[in-house]
Amino acid sequence: MTRPGTIGVLSSDLARYADFSVALMHCQTPPGSKLIWTKGADVVGNMNRMYRGMEGDWLWIMGDDHVFDSDLLLRLLEHDVDVVVPHCLKRMPPYDPVVYSGEAGEDHAGHPVYVGNTDMPKAGLVPVHACGSAGMLVRRHVFEALEKLPGEMFRSHGGLNEDLTFCADLREAGFQIYCDPSALLGHIALVSVWPEFRDGAWQIQLDLGNGVMMPVQRYLREEVLA
């Protein structure tokens, strides 16, 4: 018999997915659960391959840019609802929850503009209009109902990404989406560190994406060149 041992994971700040790997290794799952890994830049295609390869009564949609407690999946399964997501924040400022309470109208291109739920409670199941797919738990009978709709299971349509399109299909089929605010999903964010020189001094800025630059500290140019 092989003796037990220790798995040591050494990572640095530059290893983006190390935290996800450790979280996945500690994830508690029902016996006999299947793990599907899809890889590539085609997110929609990856999600459809994940769906087509699913086995059992549910599919838990996860990305490799998240961290989570080991019992997150089991907690979501305890709710016994059709569709449920954990509480996840956007990667970029202002870091709002990735759930939406409804549509407020259209933008200049005619695409729906969704209203965010910034006042999430701390516990209980919260009905939501739409959400991101990160950590989304979907029961098999939901997919069986959506198979009656035309096109692929996951797709982008009408200016909406695959997450919001899937949520629109869920609503059309009569399903309610829930969020569990106490089930937390961490979003791994990367930043770029940029030097900026102005007014005779250097400034370090973090590029948070979407044109958002965050100043970190200032120091004299002479100190850098010394």
Would you write up a description of this structure?
- This protein is an alpha+beta fold and 226 residues long.
- It is built from six helices and twelve strands.
- The strands form three sheets. Strands 1, 2, 3, 6, 8 and 9 form a six-stranded mixed beta sheet that branches. Strands 5-4-7 form a three-stranded antiparallel beta sheet, with helices on one face. The protein has a three-stranded antiparallel beta sheet with strand order 10-11-12.
- It is globular, with a radius of gyration of 21 Å.
- Mean pLDDT is 84; it is low at 219-226.
Question: Could you write a compact summary of the structure shown?
Answer:
This protein is of the alpha+beta class. The protein is built from six helices and twelve strands. A hairpin with a 5-residue loop joins strand 4 (99-106) and strand 5.
Number of helices: 6
Distance N to C terminus: 62 Å
Largest sheet: 6 strands, mixed
Mean pLDDT: 84
Q: Given this structure, which CATH class of the largest domain is correct?
A: Alpha Beta
CATH topology of the largest domain: Spore Coat Polysaccharide Biosynthesis Protein SpsA, Chain A
Radius of gyration (Å): 21 Å
Q: State the secondary-structure class.
A: alpha+beta
The proportion of residues in beta strands is: 25-35%
Helix content: 10-25%
The oligomerization state is single chain
Low-confidence stretches: 219-226
CATH architecture type of the largest domain: Alpha-Beta Complex
Count of individual domains: 2
The number of E-state strands comes to 12
Task: Summarize this structure as a short list of keywords or feature phrases.
single chain, 226 residues, Spore Coat Polysaccharide Biosynthesis Protein SpsA, Chain A, 12 strands, disordered C terminus
